[in-house]
Amino acid sequence: MSTSPAGAQVVGRLAAVLRAVSTSMPQGITTTQAAKQAGLPRPTVHRLLTALVAEGFCDHDNTTGHWLLGPELYLMGAVAAERYDISELARVHVAALAEATGESAFLSARRGDETVCLLRHDGAFPIRSFVLYEGRRFPLGVASAGIAILAFLPEASVERYLQSNDLVSEYGEAHSVKALRQKVSETRKLGYSVNPGLIVEGSWGMGAAVFDASGQPAWALSVTGIQSRFEPERRKEIGALLLHHAHELSTKLRLSSGAITR
Question: Per CATH, the architecture of 5-75 is what?
């Protein structure tokens, strides 16, 4: 692929389209939806998706008209998983959080300026929040996992991110620079983040950062549920559980750092 500015632009557009398709799994996404998510003209997105199908990176369902991730990505992902995927190490902690709290528990990974959900495990409580699910992406600072990760990045990185990203237009004033600074400060003080229904009213979340071998927040464990299940005393209990499992998982990752890196 060309390294000229035009070539770099094509790579960026392809990446944006693939991310849009990945967030729609397993049902797939229409061309119009993909164009909206990628912020690109519909004809451009259709051309890119058609090219990705030809190379095996996407599939097209002729019945629904939806685009889906293709077999080539699965093969590449299987190879990359040996280096980047911590799911097997984390699975026991996600399950333990769900069992102990009765809520839905998650593992999310940092990918640049976003988090992407890798694992979900539902607890016994019958009422659930479906704001977060496998493959769902949010910007850093949005949802409990993204808040937890942002809070423990180096101060210069936090400020650079806050100054270069506008989250208000999509997520509201609760995600202004001033509000996020307050969230970062609160999270550092508590050790864990609290999202009091800032994405969907009544859907609360809490998260704790998981650190890689170099001490950087690369993942997060989180728990979500309905507001009535997150009273102050219970938040302390859930926070303690999150910190315990995040510490245990961080320790495992540090010990196995020869095999797993971010």
Answer: Orthogonal Bundle (1.10)
